[in-house]
Amino acid sequence: MTVDTIQDLFEHGLEDIYHAEHQLLDALADLQEHTEREEIAQAFSEHREETRGQIQRLEEVFEIFGEPPEKEECEGIEGLIQEYEEFTSEDPSQDVLDYHNMAAAEKTEHYEIAAYGNLIPLADQLGMDEGADLLEENLREEQDALEELKELTEEFEIDAIPAE
Ligand SMILES: [Fe+2]
């Protein structure tokens, strides 16, 4: 696929985030499973449910755009998942892992926030008001999820992790 027009750019970005949301559906289940602290695990579980809704909204955006939903390999999120797996293979303690899980999730939120933030003006430019609103809803959920994770990170007792 050549990427020369606003339509191409929008389609490419939409397919990328569509794939990213699917990858995150699995990744959030993993994070939840490997987190001991209830409040943090709960945040992953809630955001996973939201992610299902985000995927549905993206499918509506594809429909408005007039193309079937397709995934473009999202190497950004793939890279973050790989980085996460490398860290967990070093056998961290549970407290370290709980903290790192939040950090990893926050990185994905930043990626998603940037992706939605870039797609919305393109949707506006293409006259897709309803599509822009749907993307805006996803963006707001990602921003709220990031805020919640940041609060949980700040509340985490770092003292629980021993210093060398
Ligand atoms: Fe998401």
UniProtKB/TrEMBL annotation:
Keywords: Coiled coil. Residues 132-159 form a coiled coil. It holds the Pfam family DUF892. The keyword Nuclease does not apply. The keyword Coiled coil applies. It comes from the Archaea. InterPro entries: DUF892_YciF-like, Ferritin-like, Ferritin-like_SF, YciF. SUPFAM superfamilies: Ferritin-like. PANTHER family: PROTEIN YCIF. This is DUF892 family protein. It comes from Natronorubrum halalkaliphilum. The lineage of its organism: Archaea, Methanobacteriati, Methanobacteriota, Stenosarchaea group, Halobacteria.
